[in-house]
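Why show two proteins at once? Because comparison is the fastest way to build intuition. When a single record is shown, students tend to memorize it. When two are placed side by side, the eye starts asking what differs. So, the first record is below.
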Amino acid sequence: MLTDLSRPFLARSAARCLTACALAAGVLAAAPAARAQPNAQDDISQMTLLPGWITERGTRMAGVRITLAPGWKTYWRAPQGIGIPPQFDWAGSQNVARAQVHFPAPEVLDSFGQLSLAYSDEVVFPVELTLQDPAKPVRLALSLSYGVCAEVCVPALSGAALAIPPEATGGGAAIRAAWNTRPVAAAAAGFTGAGCTIRPAGDGYALSARLAHRGTPATPRMVVFEPAADDIWITTDRASAAPGELRIDATIDYFGEGAFALDRGALRMTLIGDGRTVELTGCPAP
């Protein structure tokens, strides 16, 4: 069975963002890119598959490219504000055991008066494929649902398939450029630890995160919290840097039943800056 590592958190983000949007109103050695089947949004966006290359680990680094018409944008995995994240369905693929989508650094863009994390013009998603048998050809098939917005928002659904022989290459420059903008680990950005306190506040909870740093960190433009549970939503209120630490205050809304519980070990934080995106997972009690 093919494992899609992107599906769980994308499904959670889609459920959250759909509500916000409703409120806003032949085989060759060098395989060519496969263009998606025509759809009603072809004048707005087009999706193609890129064969990529075989990595040193024996996986194949392929790519998904979305090209947008001028003035249109599509969204990151947790868009914030208004936006629908992409959802990748690889069910028709052959000789693929696992597909892991990597998200390049997004832009901070205005969407209907709210800041959202999105891509304009074009985005390439590197996809690392674990193959069942690296010596055999791959059939990469994708059904991609995503949102595109300009003055209005339009849900898009595209499908494409690509036959990739073992020796095939193609699209490497675009995939590598996107790969080089993916989030860096917290330690590589100078962070040395994290701690979160949580207390009741009004109808929800207040979260205060303190991220220790070797120097004085840059204040990010946006901080995104991604909890493991579907029924928890965390909104960043403010972030401020000081010598030795980054302080983040946020509000937690709990929509579930029963007692509130946050899985601190699975909590993902992404710091979106102008020059770099930083990611860390886990925020224990101090």
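Second record. Ask yourself what differs from the first in the token line.
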Amino acid sequence: MGRLRARSRAAGAGQGAMMAPAAPSVRRRRRPNFAVYVYPVVTVAVLFVVWELLARAGYFPRYILPAPTGIAARFVQFKGLIARELLVTMEETLVGFALSVVFGIPLAMALCASRTFNCAVYPLLIGSQVVPKVALAPLFLLWFGFGLTSKALIVFLVAFFPIVVDTIVGLSSTEPGKLYVARAAGATPLQLFWRVRLPNALPAIFGGMKVAITLAVVGAIVGDFIAAENGIGRLLLSANGNMDTELLFAAILALIAAGIVLFLLMEAVEKLALPWHISQRRDGSGAAP
């Protein structure tokens, strides 16, 4: 009897321990992953050092590949001009990108909502991307003049297609189980769209917008090349015509920096809008926290 009582007490103690609430786990505080920023900076610095050494050693003539120090000196000399022309190009880029978002996302929604509309319009969208933008740019200038409108429309034509395609992919990739549950709960078609389909498509939409913002810069340069009145493209043409390679590289590097800033700004907006998505809960290495 004594042994049975001892066993019952031990079993009771074991069950009590199992039923006792677990001690709250100490959540590790996420540390900022500086490697995401350090590695690219170090890589670029090494490339510039190697570039400088090769240029100083005389492997390349100055008019073909000038030294980074010469490019930096040229940038300081013409920083005001580069800044003014770059602001014009960024205005064209942002206006055209805004148009691509405003018209691209609703168009993708309409393409997903109606199969007939999809079959009628989607081939035309694909055809518009097959035609080289350089061939269409002179027509836009003829129709809309040499101002901001024609260049913004060229940017729009370049940037809207990734937004349309990625939005269609996102809206079409909603899991059927989520739709069944929402319908069983009595959700209307409008509620299905706003509460199920659209949130599920947001990561894909932002992916298309990040691609589009970089293509928008390319579209703005195409417009500047065709209508060489102002913009960083006009400065590139002028420097190329004068064989001023240092100014040419300075303008190109300024354009690259502006494109990277626009991409990072779009990523920041994505993080603010999608804090719940798994891609935003991971550190820069891709490992879960």
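One difference worth noting in the second protein: The longest helix spans residues 189-226.
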